[in-house]
Specification:
Layout: E1 8-12, H1 15-26, H2 31-45, E2 55-61, E3 67-72, E4 89-92, E5 99-101, H3 118-129, H4 134-147, E6 149-150, H5 153-159, H6 170-174, H7 178-184, E7 197-198, H8 201-213, H9 216-219, H10 222-233, H11 240-245, E8 249-251, E9 254-258, E10 261-265, H12 272-282, H13 287-290, H14 295-315, H15 331-342, E11 360-366, E12 372-378, E13 424-428, E14 431-437, H16 444-456, H17 462-467, E15 471-472, E16 478-480, H18 486-494, E17 499-501, E18 512-517, E19 520-525, E20 532-536
Parallel strand pairs: 16-17
Antiparallel strand pairs: 1-11, 1-20, 2-3, 2-12, 3-8, 4-5, 6-7, 9-10, 10-13, 11-12, 13-14, 14-18, 15-16, 18-19
Length: 538
């Protein structure tokens, strides 16, 4: 093996996916080829985190001239209506941040599914920006699906994590379908454990069809027909017309700046607007002088998080349905909030939204020509539904819509719901310096924010930046991971702040990223997940 520094790199949350992408880079594929090959493998080896029936957001930068974001959030079925579940509303979740419906119909089962966007986004990215044939991009995932996979620690951790704030148990999702019961459980009925083999031959057959026929087979062909038939038989809302009508959205990135760095991130319904607002607020404080994770640092950053969360809950949604004010990303507005934080005022978060599940994953790639791809993709809290013979699980994104009409997050046909996915690139002197993103539900943007501050304000390596202890304030409380010492937060508690300590060593998102310093690449995979950074010499 060469001792030369790598000139290409991939970071994902699964070693199998990182290896698949690395092999594409080794064989001359570009960053898009590698990222989409890795993403398809992720759907095989982390089948509740992502897959062809999911949603997400990606950013692609090519120094030759391309710079775009592709949004592929799930869309409500065309038959959905704002009040269709109003009479099923039982109450809010136990933390007051979401809704529970009778029978969990919005959360598990056929009615929980929104029209998927992931496969179309993968396909269009390869068609428009890749250099390989689509069938070759799919080959690693087809091979992996035929071989199956072995349960990794983070997969098992999620499988055994129990209920999510009053919603369905994870094991209910795993065992909802015949395929799930066969693939994910032992003969004695218990969920498979670390090292157990998972086989899903139906998924291999579906991926082989997708490799041969492209996205059309899913949205207009044989798979679309099977989806339509299964949904009709089981009371689902999705129809072939929904699949045929689905389209991704391609836009220029949302732009911001921070201490001389140029920030490129995604538009709503993704979380980039929150990231830009928080960075604008924090630019008014000398964070490096205040000290990383000091008491005052935690207070200031947490208040910025609360301000952005409150604005998101009340003012941000699908831009096709919600008028989002421009001032949310303006420096003057941020400076006013910073002045209030400096004076000791506490921002107020009124919980109007729903909790976003942590069932998501990420891939980030830089190739030898400097092309960068960062993509977060997910199933949301997966519905548990796997149509007989197809092998893949569908997203459960209807669970994040407000069942009450007349609100920013209410149900409407063809609507996407806000998520915190925030694939981001920070530029320095016109060149990419940080390429990153994260899974982690509501906490994605909070994890990405802190990793970026770790690099931009404290000059950490990417490994240090993604590994440092994190905290979050998406409510009026401050959540901290267990490596933040008590002496850092005790003064805040004495001043009336509610501090909630997690037993988890890592958390608040799971950031994966690459730092670029000239021709030097360094990657970091969040140690709370199973992933790896692989550097390639080509």
């Amino acid at each position: 093996m060469s001792n030369k520094s790598p000139n290409a790199m991939i970071v994902t949350a699964q070693p199998e996916a990182s290896e698949a992408g690395a092999r594409v880079l080794m064989r001359g594929g570009n960053a898009v080829d590698a990222a989409m090959a890795a993403a398809l493998v992720q759907g095989v080896v982390d089948p509740q985190m992502c897959g062809v029936a999911g949603f997400g957001s990606m950013q692609i930068y090519d120094p030759k001239g391309t710079h775009t974001c592709i949004d592929f959030h799930g869309k409500t079925p065309l038959s959905a209506t704002p009040d269709m579940w109003l009479d099923l509303l039982m109450g809010e979740t136990r933390d007051g941040f979401g809704f529970v419906l009778k029978g969990n119909v919005n959360d598990i089962g056929y009615q929980a599914v929104t029209t998927p966007g992931s496969l179309l986004a993968y396909f269009e990215a390869v068609r428009d920006f890749g250099s390989w044939d689509w069938s070759d991009i799919c080959e690693p995932a087809v091979t992996q699906a035929a071989a199956g996979f072995y349960v990794r620690p983070h997969v098992y951790h999620w499988w055994t994590s129990g209920a999510n704030l009053g919603r369905a148990e994870v094991t209910e999702r795993l065992g909802f379908s015949k395929t799930g019961r066969a693939a994910y459980f032992r003969a004695d009925g218990s969920v498979k454990r670390i090292g157990d083999h998972v086989a899903n031959p139906d998924l291999a057959r579906s991926l082989a069809m997708i490799a041969r026929d492209g996205a059309d087979v899913f949205y207009r062909g044989e798979i679309a027909d099977k989806i339509d038939s299964d949904m009709r038989k089981n009371g689902g809302l999705i129809r072939r017309a929904d699949l045929e009508a689905y389209h991704t959205t391609k836009v220029d990135p949302l732009r911001g700046s921070y201490r001389g760095f140029d920030i490129a991130t995604n538009h709503p319904p993704g979380g980039g607007i929150m990231l830009v607002e928080m960075l604008n607020i924090l630019e008014n404080f000398d964070l490096s002088a205040i000290g990383h994770n000091s008491t005052e640092y935690i207070r200031i950053v947490a208040e910025a998080m609360k301000a952005a969360t409150a604005d998101k809950d009340t003012r941000v949604g699908d831009p096709s349905f919600v008028n989002i004010p421009d001032y949310l990303v303006e420096k003057v507005y941020a400076a006013e909030i910073a002045d209030r934080i400096r004076s000791g005022e506490r921002m107020l978060v009124t919980r109007l939204g729903q909790p976003e599940p942590k069932d998501t994953t990420h891939v980030v790639v830089v190739d030898k020509a400097g092309m960068c791809v960062t993509m977060t993709h997910s199933l949301g809290m997966p519905s548990g539904v796997i149509s007989d013979g197809l092998g893949f699980m569908y997203n459960g994104c209807m669970a994040v819509f407000d069942p009450r009409p007349g609100r920013a997050g209410s149900i409407a046909p063809g609507k996407s719901r806000f998520s915190s996915v925030v694939p981001t690139i920070a530029f320095r002197d016109g060149a990419p310096h940080i390429v990153l993103g994260a899974p982690g539900g509501t906490q994605i943007v909070m994890g990405v924010l802190q990793a970026m501050l770790n690099v931009m304000d404290f000059n950490m390596s990417m490994v240090e930046a993604v590994s440092a202890p994190r905290f979050s304030a998406t409510s009026n409380a401050i959540d901290i991971t267990n490596r933040i010492p008590g002496y850092a937060v005790e003064p805040l508690q004495a001043n009336g702040y509610q501090i909630i300590r997690s037993a988890e060593t890592f958390g608040i998102g799971a950031v994966h990223g690459i730092r670029i310093d000239g021709k030097t690449l360094s990657g970091g995979a969040d140690p709370g997940h199973d992933g790896v950074s692989l550097g390639i010499n080509i």
